[in-house]
Amino acid sequence: MTAYLAEHLDLSEYAANELRQFYWRRYGATLVGLIRHHGIDPHHFLRETHRFPQIGDLVVGRRELRSVLRRLPGHKIVFSNAPAHYSRAILAALGVDDLFDDVFSIERTRFRPKPDAHGSADCCARTGCWRRAASWSRTASRTCAPPNAWNEDVWVDRSSRSPPGWTRMSVTSCACRGCCACSRPALTTEDAEDAEKNKTRKSKVG
Hints:
The protein is 45% helix and 8% strand. By secondary structure, it is mostly helical. The protein has a three-stranded parallel beta sheet with strand order 3-4-5, with no helix packed on it. A two-stranded parallel ribbon has the order 1-2. α1 packs across α2 and α2 (13-27) crosses α3 (30-38). It is globular. The relative contact order is 0.13.
């Protein structure tokens, strides 16, 4: 993603990384800032910045993930700021893609993703989740809709802190026996980039 900004906005790597983080903190998604301030084509950006042919090597899940998800009642929908192909690739790499009813990706929010309330409202309206829904997140303070946008908002993390208005649920207190930490946090584009860089460094050292 940093490389994309550097190339298409003619920035140094340092400046591109600073701008990427600034837009991410301000809008919850770097893409929103690029659309608003630089007229970047969102489809081109998402396609070029989410190319990870070896995504399966970067995703680490827990063995009990599938069984835990199968025990959860109700429809399961992935609401992500990532593009559809990337979100589905992550689910497939974790071996749980068949357990989800839908993937509501950034394209379907018309590029108004979390934390923009429009994206959350659109997701609920199109999937019919207004009556009873829970938003599970570990990055609520910067990427999730405000509390009360869902029926219940659950903060998922191993730390002891949670944003105001959110219900914190640890592994031990979870009624579904571990669903809160049955896999690592969702792999963002930045995570994948860092993982690939670290992998390259290790190979060079070796």
